[in-house]
Design brief:
Layout: E1 11-13, E2 16-18, H1 20-43, E3 48-49, H2 51-59, E4 71-75, H3 76-89, E5 95-97, E6 110-113, H4 122-127, E7 136-144, H5 149-170, H6 175-189, H7 199-211, E8 221-223, H8 225-228, E9 236-237, E10 244-249, E11 252-257, H9 260-268, H10 287-297, H11 308-320, E12 331-337, H12 344-355, E13 359-365, E14 368-371, E15 377-381, E16 393-394, H13 401-404, E17 408-411, E18 422-424, H14 430-433, E19 440-443, H15 456-466, H16 469-473, E20 476-479, H17 482-496, H18 501-507, E21 508-510, H19 534-537, E22 546-552, H20 554-559, H21 561-577, E23 582-588, H22 597-616, E24 620-621, H23 627-636, E25 640-642
Parallel strand pairs: 4-7, 12-13, 12-17, 13-16, 17-19, 19-20, 20-21, 22-23, 22-25, 23-24
Antiparallel strand pairs: 1-2, 3-4, 5-6, 6-7, 7-8, 8-9, 10-11, 14-15, 14-18
Helix pairs in contact: 1-3, 2-9, 5-6, 5-7, 21-22
């Protein structure tokens, strides 16, 4: 799989800060998923994105920002066929983890993993995009629910009995009582349970047999049995899982149930409503491996640890920072910016400094390198030409920072060598910058949604940025709010010891969101709009029309195609008549699946409708990548609506 270098950078998605290491883990899992997909395509095995992966495909076209793993499911027959070929077909080094391979495995699903250990070999890092940790995919199985109420109850009771014994073993129930229950169950089912072999595994193998008692052809509904024994209402019509369509997912696609809207509504309710809740496993999923790597090597190369020397220098600089008795006639401020896209976080401070007649303000574009999967540097990158025209950017080669020794340096790159995806030029590492000024200030370059210490997933991601060389070595740290200030102080104190709390309290300042620092000034005139959209959006008097964003999903066509197509046609006709007053921006979801029969007819009619709209020329035909432009239009429009 291919990812642009920038894909691995930190990112705020839907208000959630995603750290670069998480991006590496996501990419590694997508590689595993692609290899699973190749095996399934070769053998005609049907699989579906499941759980958070299904929701991510529908709602985010990729990972849910606060999710860290991938889940898929297969119907029992496909699952069994996958298990029969996977070990031989998957790449060398992969292995299956389930009740057939591991006596102590506690689940009835399979985990496909790419490694049994942390692996820093060049080949491994290259294939799995710089992630040395073992990554895997959970493969859940869908079983048929018994066709009659009587058979369903019998199946339910038997499976519940087996799981009840397993739970009793986990809770430490006396061996004698467990043996009595096992003997009674074995007698009822007329099976042999060998006391010389691992009991737990035998029970789970027995449970799997009971789960698959009935075939799909006999049943009307499917379920995941481990959930079903806890909640008998967890069942879905088997028609939900008859066919797939592929939806975009990050840089590729994944198969989802063709009736994914119905499945998502059943599983998640109002699934387009975002709820930042976590899963049931430890987060991030590689957390134990991070600790194991540190134990094995003495340090983790991806994680900065606060040193005693850094703390000593911090205290020394804090003590010596006194108001100057004399100061130069003009004081100097330097703004160091690595990514031009992050300039907005500094712009208001730069404007204020530029207006001050006693201040000489300089902007220097810091060169940086994207990292190869093995951590080595790629070609040097520089974005001096990407700043707004009004910003005069000094060439770092001709600007001797140490000779200038400015009063203040503002910077936004806290990681030095510790980020997994990029590094600024080593001459701009913060241990050197500290020597070039009496006051080094780190400004948080991104704005995420506010969160509390109880939101462990948000905390775990922000920790990479918070506990970094630039934050520790800076004399002042500006974060987006007072609430975030408290979280950063707590994280740094936890890492360095309670006795350091006062140091962080003095160092860290909470301000308004840095992302909100750059305010957009919209006049509501055509000059603010994307050039190609102006004819559709602007009235004759050069003011902006009312705007309607109209989204149509393929899933809505799969349930009642004729009625849905007619509804879309009717809506388009209305907007065509009102085109002088209302601008329509239509986002028709792409129909990518190969269809046959009635599905093919519906797909062709849908594509014909899109083509007619495009040729008619009365509205804007948009795709998901143009959502930023749509957001700009909404901001400019006197009234707006999503449909």
């Amino acid at each position: 799989m291919e990812f642009p270098d920038s894909w691995f950078l930190d990112e705020v998605r839907d208000g959630f800060f995603v750290a670069g290491m998480m991006k590496r883990a996501w990419a590694a899992q997508l590689e595993v998923l692609e290899d699973i997909d190749k095996v399934c395509k070769k053998h005609g095995i049907l699989w579906f994105a499941d759980c958070g992966t299904l929701l991510g495909a529908i709602r985010h076209r990729g990972f849910i920002p606060w999710d860290d793993d991938l889940d898929i499911c297969m119907k029992r027959e496909d699952y069994n066929r996958f298990l029969s070929v996977a070990a031989a077909e998957l790449p060398e080094g992969y292995f299956l983890h389930n009740i057939y391979t591991d006596d102590g495995y506690p689940e009835l699903f399979t985990r496909v993993l790419n490694s049994r250990q942390i692996n820093f070999s060049k080949e491994f890092l290259e294939k799995f995009h710089g992630c040395p940790y073992g990554m895997g995919i959970d493969v859940f199985v869908l079983d048929a629910i018994a066709p009659s109420p009587e058979e369903e109850e019998a199946q339910y009771e038997l499976i519940s009995s087996v799981f009840g014994i397993v739970q009793a073993m986990e809770e430490g129930v006396a061996d004698g009582e467990v043996r009595r229950q096992v003997e009674a169950l074995a007698g009822l089912l007329q099976v042999n349970i060998d006391p010389a072999r691992p009991l737990r595994r035998q029970l789970l193998l027995l449970a799997e047999g009971l789960c698959s008692m009935f075939g799909e052809s006999e049943a009307n509904e499917l379920t995941e049995m481990q959930v079903f024994v806890q909640d008998k209402s967890y069942r879905m019509p088997k028609a939900y899982y008859r066919e797939t369509v592929r939806l975009p997912f990050e840089t590729g696609t994944v198969p989802v149930p063709k009736l994914y809207d119905a499945v998502a509504k059943y599983k998640f309710g109002a699934y387009m409503q975002q709820v930042k809740s976590g899963g049931t496993h430890e987060y991030p999923l590689y957390k134990k491996q991070e600790a194991a790597l540190r134990t094995k090597r003495g340090k983790n190369p991806f994680i900065y640890e606060i040193s005693g020397e850094d703390l000593k220098l911090c205290r020394q600089r804090d003590r010596r920072r006194q108001p100057a008795v004399q100061r130069r006639r003009q004081y100097q401020v330097v703004f160091l910016v690595c990514k031009a896209s992050e300039w907005g976080g500094m712009e208001s401070i730069w404007r204020a400094a530029s207006r001050d007649p006693d201040c000489a303000a300089y902007v220097v574009s810091v060169p940086f390198y994207y990292k190869h999967p093995d951590g080595s540097f790629g070609e040097m990158q520089e974005e001096a030409g990407d700043f707004p025209e009004e910003v005069l950017v000094a060439d770092y080669r001709g600007f001797d920072l140490w000779a200038h020794h400015p009063d203040v340096i503002y910077m936004q790159h806290p990681y030095d060598e510790f980020h997994t995806a990029y590094s600024v030029h080593p001459m701009f590492y913060t241990d050197r910058l500290r020597e070039a000024t009496d006051c080094l200030v780190y400004i948080q370059p991104f704005a995420a949604d506010e969160f509390t210490a109880e939101d462990t997933r948000a905390v775990e991601n922000i920790k990479y940025c918070c506990i970094s060389p630039g934050v520790v070595r800076a004399d002042r740290v500006i974060v987006q709010s007072e609430g975030m200030r408290g979280i950063w102080i707590d994280l740094l104190t936890e890492a360095a010891g309670e006795e350091t709390r006062i140091l962080w309290e003095k160092k860290i300042m909470g301000m308004d969101s840095s992302g909100a620092d750059k305010t957009a000034e919209c006049s509501g005139k055509a000059a603010e709009l994307p050039e190609a959209w102006k004819p559709f959006l602007v009235k004759k008097d050069q003011t902006i029309k009312r705007v309607v964003l109209f989204y149509t999903g393929v899933s809505s066509l799969l349930g009642n195609a004729e009625k849905t197509l007619e509804k879309i046609k009717r809506a388009l006709g209305i907007f065509r008549e009102m085109r002088e007053e209302i601008a329509l921006v239509w986002f028709p979801e792409a129909w990518e699946a190969a269809e046959t029969g009635e599905g093919q007819k519906t797909a062709e009619a849908y594509r014909d409708l899109v083509f007619w709209y495009q040729e008619s020329g009365f509205g804007i035909l948009a795709c998901p990548s143009e959502l930023p432009q749509a957001a700009q239009v909404l901001a400019l429009s006197p009234s707006r609506m999503w449909m």
